[in-house]
Each structure stands twice: as C-alpha cells, then as structure tokens.
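Q&A log
Question type: sequence-to-structure
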Amino acid sequence: MKTILILLTAVFLLSACSPTVGSEKWCQQAKGEWSANEAVEFTRNCIIRSGDAKKQY
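Response status: OK
Response body:
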C-alpha cells in the first residue's frame, strides 16, 4: 500500500512540472526539438495569438 501511495504521489508531482500547452509560460519556454503537433500548437497559440493582440491596440 505504501508503494502505491508513493508512486501516485510521484506521478502527481511530476505531472505538474510542465506548463499547459498554449499558455504564456509554455510560449516563453525555449524548446530545442518539437514534434509536428507541438510546432502547430506553438504557431496557433503563440505566434498567431500574439499577432492578434498587437492588432487590437
């Protein structure tokens, strides 16, 4: 039982380490290698969204 509790705690703590895809923090993170899906999400959430924000002002 202790092993399961320790394992669940470790999984919970490790899953909170990476920011949510598309968030400001995620956009500002430097990434070396991206999958195709990550590149699409970066373009959609960071480049296009930031371009739209500049047009509103």
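Response note: Helices lie at 2-15, 24-28, 36-56.
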